UniProtKB/TrEMBL annotation, chain A:
EC main group: translocase
SUPFAM superfamilies named in the record: MOP-like, P-loop containing nucleoside triphosphate hydrolases
SMART domains with a match to the protein in the record: AAA
Keyword annotations of the record: ATP-binding, Nucleotide-binding, Transport
GO molecular function: ABC-type quaternary ammonium compound transporting activity; ATP binding; ATP hydrolysis activity
Species of origin: Streptomyces regalis
Domain ABC transporter: 5-240
Keyword Ribosomal protein: no
Highest taxon listed in the record's lineage: Bacteria
EC number: 7.6.2.9
Protein name, UniProt field: ABC-type quaternary amine transporter
Coiled-coil regions listed: none
One Pfam family per UniProt: ABC_tran
InterPro entries to which the protein is assigned, alphabetical: AAA+_ATPase, ABC_SmlMolc_Importer, ABC_transporter-like_ATP-bd, ABC_transporter-like_CS, Mo/tungstate-bd_C_term_dom, P-loop_NTPase, Transp-assoc_OB_typ2
Automatic annotation (TrEMBL), chain B:
The organism of origin for this protein: Streptomyces regalis
Homology family: Belongs to the binding-protein-dependent transport system permease family. CysTW subfamily.
Transmembrane segments: 31-50, 86-112, 124-144, 164-184, 221-248, 268-289
Membrane topology recorded in Swiss-Prot or TrEMBL: Multi-pass membrane protein
Full protein name: Phosphonate ABC transporter permease
Broad class of where this protein is predominantly found: membrane
């Protein structure tokens, strides 16, 4: 089956309460798209609209170019993996993986011998071949999730939907599985993956593109690098990576005014005198003198092994600096000067609410 | 379900030493605590039961012998009653399981307004006396019931077409109607434990609704079906009110036989023999159920 998902102005509402507002988004064949957002942002609803478990109030959903809005879930040929695995408890691992193949009927009916090979193949691919005869309850969480992935891949779907697949796993296992998913994607270059997560690390690591969602709306969509280096708005800046967001006024001579000081930054396309938000990533802030100085008082200092995190109050705003481990870190209450390069700062339209 | 059992086992495991220390406090007379329940059981249940067994071994001719058993087992009336009882109970159980499963599926998985109200009503239904439903059926399908009344009014015929209520089929209908909620109740409890993500996963893997019911829902409902089914089977074997109230003269079940032998023929030893057989069948089935259910859970 050909991959590719297209949302055409998809709106979902429960009892008049809009949970997904006119989503327009295209996932190319073979692309990994992360839907990133806090809970209640509509990202899971978008995934469920693709799977066919929620019916859009308006708009169309396309799979591989075909309009599937009115098709029941069992006719969409989608692989789906959810947070809680949802394996069938009374079936062995191999029976779980064979379930989707046995359910195929008519033109796509799979012969018995082929079911066997494809089950073995899917288990091999997820490293679970040795556990074929086990029951789900005899497996760890990570192993169960691998079986769930094998079960979804066995039907050779064009589209794979992953709904917070790693959220139930502990941190260490999560990073292993992340690498595993990246490998699976390399082995299945034609499969489109829609990956719903609230974890920016998972999204940055795995996705070709990230769609940032908040309050039922798509906030931004782009490659991880674009979103990280040049976020489109304050929400994206604070949700994709950490960000210092400072309210500024655009000056007349290029650059902005923050508190009492001038800051040099690209102001293309913004009229002098306008309010704006300056975004600087904490790890791009340096300690000591340099261009674009910010002076203030240390309110807190955290040693994090390889880095020191400094909280500095500058003109009533908190600025965070992540610094490579300091030999002589400043003490609480010290006056310090921070700096950052003009290239590392981005000017955003002044936001409402986030900041 | 297995999770719950495991947790219970763990809890029982660590509670044992505590229980032990508690009994050691009253170690002087631990048996004292057992006196009230045993005495109550003895007076209310065991003594009458013993009397029944004793009576069944004392023929009217005097002495103690198995003659009443030989007489009863040899009689056609008993054999026929035994067969009627068993097939009615088995048929009702099958009917209740099928109907109950379908009803529970609809109530649990098909969203319709009032589903909760229906589930509530089933709880209330369980508390109704058996004869009530039989009376209701009599009003509807009885010889002078609504259905026949409508028919005779419309056609002018002397009799209506609905005469099945006094046949075994009438008893079967009444028993299925009355006992189905006993199957629905545990099924609804089992379905509420079912992870809907499993149903969605099955759907996205290409399974149609029928396949999801057969391959995903049914296997997980089996313990609840076994529990509800065996309860209904035992209750049907011992059902008296329904058979009496349908007025089905040709339908003699074991409890009816006890009634007619004791009250109408004054054959007390014979009645007690039938009663003992009835009790043995019930207890035997209950034991079988315990063994099966324990194996199913292991």
């Amino acid at each position: 089956m050909i991959g590719g998902i297209r949302f055409d102005s998809v709106t979902v509402a429960y009892d008049g309460n809009v949970v997904l507002d006119a989503l327009d988004l295209t996932v190319e064949p073979g692309e990994v798209m992360a839907l990133l957002g806090p809970s209640g942002s509509g990202k899971t609803t978008a995934l469920r609209a693709v799977a066919g478990f929620v019916r859009p109030a308006s708009g169309r959903v396309f799979l591989g170019g075909q309009d599937v809005t009115d098709l029941p879930p069992y006719r969409r040929g989608i692989g789906m993996v959810v947070q809680q695995y949802a394996l069938f408890p009374h079936m062995r691992v191999e029976e779980n993986v064979a379930f989707g193949l046995k359910a195929q009927r008519g033109r796509t009916k799979v012969p018995k011998a082929e079911i066997r090979t494809r089950v073995a193949e899917a288990l091999e691919m997820t490293g679970m071949a040795a556990y074929a005869r086990r029951y789900p309850r005899e497996l760890s969480g990570g192993q169960q999730q691998r079986v769930a992935i094998a079960r979804a891949l066995a039907i050779r779907p064009g589209v794979l939907l992953l709904d917070e697949p790693l959220s139930a796993l502990d941190a260490r296992l999560r990073s292993d599985m992340l690498a595993e998913l990246a490998r699976l994607h390399r082995e299945l270059p034609d499969v489109s993956i829609l990956y719903v997560t609230h974890d920016q690390v998972e999204a940055l690591t795995l996705a070709d593109r990230i769609a940032v969602m908040d309050r039922a709306r798509l906030q931004a969509c782009g490659t991880p690098r674009e979103l990280y280096r040049a976020p489109a708005n304050e929400f994206t800046a604070s949700f994709v990576g950490n960000a210092n967001l400072l309210p500024v006024t655009v000056g007349s001579g290029g650059g902005v005014v923050f508190g009492g000081g001038e800051i040099e930054v690209g102001t293309a396309g913004v009229a002098p005198g306008a309010k704006a938000t300056l975004c600087v990533r904490p790890h791009l802030v340096g300690l000591g003198d340099g261009p674009n100085r910010l002076s203030g008082t240390v309110t807190e200092i955290q040693w994090r092994g390889s880095t020191h995190r400094l909280y500095v109050e500058v003109d009533g705003r908190r600025v965070i600096a992540d610094l490579r481990e300091l030999k002589a870190p400043p003490a609480h209450g010290d006056e310090v000067t921070l700096h950052f390069s003009p290239d590392d700062a981005t000017l955003l339209a002044a936001g409402v609410g986030h900041g | 379900m297995a999770e719950v059992v495991r947790r219970l086992r763990v809890r029982r495991g660590w509670s044992r030493p505590r229980g032990g220390s508690r009994t050691s406090n009253t170690a002087s007379r631990p048996w004292l605590a057992a006196v009230p329940p045993v005495a109550l059981l003895a007076v209310l249940f065991l003594y009458p039961l013993a009397l029944v067994v004793q009576q069944s071994l004392q023929p009217d001719t005097g002495g103690t012998s198995f003659q009443p058993y030989a007489d009863v087992f040899a009689s056609d009336a008993f054999r026929e009653a035994l067969w009627t009882t068993v097939w009615l109970a088995a048929g009702s159980t099958v009917g209740c399981l099928v109907l109950g499963f379908v009803l529970a599926l609809v109530i649990a998985f098909v969203p319709f307004p009032g589903a909760r109200a229906v589930a509530r009503f089933i709880d209330v239904f369980l508390s109704f006396p058996t004869f009530l439903i039989t009376l209701a059926l009599l009003f509807v399908y009885g010889t002078v019931g609504m259905a026949n009344g409508l028919w005779t009014d419309l056609t002018g015929a002397a009799d209506g077409p609905f005469q099945f209520l006094t046949t075994p089929w009438g008893v079967l209908l009444a028993e299925i109607t009355y006992f189905t909620p006993f199957v629905v109740r545990p099924l609804l409890a089992a379905f509420s434990q079912l992870d809907t993500a499993q149903l969605e996963a099955a759907g996205s893997l290409g399974a149609r609704p029928v396949r999801i019911v057969r391959r995903v829902i049914l296997p997980e409902a089996l313990p609840a079906l076994a529990a509800g089914g065996s309860l209904v089977l035992v209750l049907c074997l011992n059902e008296f009110g329904i058979v009496l109230f349908t007025g089905a003269k040709g339908v003699t079940t074991l409890p009816m036989l006890v009634h007619s032998k004791a009250i109408l023929e004054s054959d007390y030893p014979g009645a007690c023999v039938v009663a003992v057989v009835n009790v043995l069948i019930s207890v035997g089935l209950y034991g079988l159920y315990r063994v099966v259910s324990r194996r199913a859970r292991a």
